[in-house]
Amino acid sequence: MTNLEGHLLIATPEMQDNYFYRGIIFLCEHSDQGAMGLMINAPTDLSVMELIAKMDFLIAGSRHYGKDQLVLSGGPVSTERGFILHTPISTPLLHTYPIGSTLQLTTSGDILDVLGTPQSPEKFIVCLGCCTWKGEQLEQEIAENQWISVPATTELLFETGYLDRWSEANALLGIEGVLAKAGRA
């Protein structure tokens, strides 16, 4: 089994699940026991600033954001939980896990205390919910041509517009035109 941690899963035209139609998932974890990832191209109508205001109205007004980004629907599992994918920070947080050498995943609410402050990660994505697979389930879906994987880039994760990520991920593979001709683009 090839470890796909840090890769993107790109939904193919073979994907029959409407939830994942044109989905792009960043894999945070991949092992014999299964996989976990975050859908990175399904924005909600809730902004990060609104989320922080709902959590603690008093601190929201004192934050500074270069741009207020949207909270993403990270997947259909644990939709009440937050998952923040971000560049490394020096502030210790309760539940932060490294993903390679350039990214971290934080699942504890204490990261909300640093977002918008000088200690904030330079780049971050806030998701509600995640995607999970049991052992060998993801490998089976890849064998069925439901997903294609490609190494993630920070440009696609943090700089590409939410709705442009599917096309940009396919462009990394050089197959954007092929998928468009398949009739579901």
Can you offer a commentary on this structure?
With 185 residues, the chain is of the alpha+beta class. The chain has helices at residues 48-55, 57-60, 137-143, 154-159, 165-173, 176-181, and strands spanning 7-11, 24-31, 34-39, 43-47, 70-73, 77-86, 96-99, 103-106, 124-134, 147-151. The two termini are 30 Å apart.
Keywords:
185 residues, 6 helices, 22% helix, globular, disordered C terminus
Beta-strand percentage?
25-35%
Q: How far is the N terminus from the C terminus?
A: 30 Å
| Molecular shape | globular
Question: What would you call the structural class?
Answer: alpha+beta
Uncertain runs are 177-185
Write the H/E string, N to C. EEEEHHEEEEEHEHHH
Average pLDDT rating = 87
Q: Please estimate the helix content.
A: 10-25%
The rounded Rg comes to: 17 Å
Find the count of extended strands (DSSP E, 2+ residues): 10
Helix tally?
6
Largest sheet entry: 10 strands, mixed
